[in-house]
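Trying the structure run again after the queue cleared.
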Amino acid sequence: MLRLALTGGDGFLGWHVRVLARALGWPEPVRLGRVELADPAVAAARIDGVDRLLHLAGVNRGDPADVVTGNVELAAALAAALRRCPAPPPVVVFANSVQCGNGTPYGDAKAVAAATLAETVPHLVDVRLPNLYGEHGRPFYNSVVATFCRLLADGGRPQVHDDRELELVHVTDAAAHLMDAPSTGAWDGTMPALRLSVRALADLLTGQAADYRTGDVPALRDRHAVRLFNTYRSHCFPGHYPIPLRRHGDARGELVETVRVHDGPGQTFCSTTRPGATRGEHFHLAKVERFVVLRGTAEISLRRIGHDDVVTFPVRGTDPVVVDMPTMWAHRIVNTGPDELVTLFWTNELFDPQRPDTYRESVTPAGHPADLVTA
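Done. Tokens:
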């Protein structure tokens, strides 16, 4: 169990590092923002005695002069803090880029930042990351994946102006590599890459979005297909839910198609829940999970890890709908009715008790009343 410190802890990569630390049961990482880094004494006190320091903060886009200044000054501020730290971290990791030193303002600024840290840290771990993608990335900033997902979620279509080969790594895999976390099925610190063209990426995501528009689960043939789908779903939530289901009835009764999967494995199971009882209170890093209430009334509540707002969907069996659990959101279902609740659950993978990809987390934020709900 390592005690981490982070710069850029509120950014895309930083948030995923914090989520993975939560899944591993590690302490909440110490965060250094611009305010702390502006005072070397304050920053030194914050990182004193931690086991591993990850320098994730940087400026990716904007005016070229701001990109250069931002990356260089952040590294210099961290180096000043390390020099003043009584017990500096034994391991310092710099989240560098494969663009380091490529002649662009960003690439050259990253090279200067790495050299600045190396002058202070004798054994700097300099990790040159490729393009990262994953849940809740900022469109038009973090990656082309986030941009395409946002366009599709808003009903648009990706436009390819510069078709080139991409090397994509899921951000949780990158976080595991930087943290030196042991790999499981939910993440892989070896950072397996997906290599494809921009046009192929656009076509793949467009196909997933088209299948999912009516609740169909697209073909999820490999781990990158699953993670791209989870990335797309993060841009759909919560506005696209719940997804209504068509009911087919005749003299014999009614039929509802709850899960239509185009390809790949999966597991369906059904549960009963007594009045007032709760199921869930956990989150997943990679698993796709679907809830459909078939009988009774319930509330499905969700909260993004590291955030306080709770999203709640009232559901009932007389009007069945799909609510799919976004990855890295704690979730639960509560029977709010007087009768037994019957719920169908579906996941995209067979349950493995050795690698369940399930991490305990209350939906209700710590220190908040249990009835905090944001629709």
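The chain has nine helices and 20 strands. Worth checking whether this holds up in the mutant runs.
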